[in-house]
Amino acid sequence: MQVAGQTNIVNLLRLDRQPTIRRADLERRHRVDIASSWASFHNQLAAGLNMGLAGIPWWTTDIGGFHGGNPDHPAFRELFTRWFQWGPRAQAGEPAHGQWYLVVPVFEAGQRKITAYLPAGASWKLWDAEKVYSGGCEVEVDCPIETRPVFVRV
């Protein structure tokens, strides 16, 4: 690839060893194909956190899973939508509680309200709203299927 003139090359690996960071390896978080289920989706959060604790900064998820989903079924479409709402943030290696943003993943079918803990020491507002919340407490917010809750530090 370098001989062809490409730069910023990233390899997608399916291994259970720590990748060589200098080669920009990108680790997948599992050794087997995952199911298209809410339980598998939720497990991807724990898997990603464990990758970070193991010193592997870049990781990815298989959005939507690989088996058991029916694209024509509304329940699978909801799962797929929620996974896409969370996945790109996770894949970028950004933690849920970043310095400026707090992404609240929705891991339950049919959920339209969610409770989130806002870290102390800052004020927060939803990305698309003006109401400001004090940090250091839990808040309940709407989470319609069309969007995911993203708080911005103000």
Automatic annotation (TrEMBL):
Pfam families: Glyco_hydro_31_2nd, Glyco_hydro_31_3rd. One of its GO terms (molecular function) is hydrolase activity, hydrolyzing O-glycosyl compounds. Keywords: Glycosidase, Hydrolase. InterPro entries: GH, Glyco_hydro_31_C, Glyco_hydro_31_TIM, Glyco_hydro_b, Glycosyl_Hydrolase_31. Residues 33-87 form the Glycoside hydrolase family 31 TIM barrel domain. GO terms for biological process: carbohydrate metabolic process. The keyword Hydrolase applies. This is Uncharacterized protein. Residues 98-153 form the Glycosyl hydrolase family 31 C-terminal domain. SUPFAM superfamilies: (Trans)glycosidases, Glycosyl hydrolase domain. Belongs to the glycosyl hydrolase 31 family.
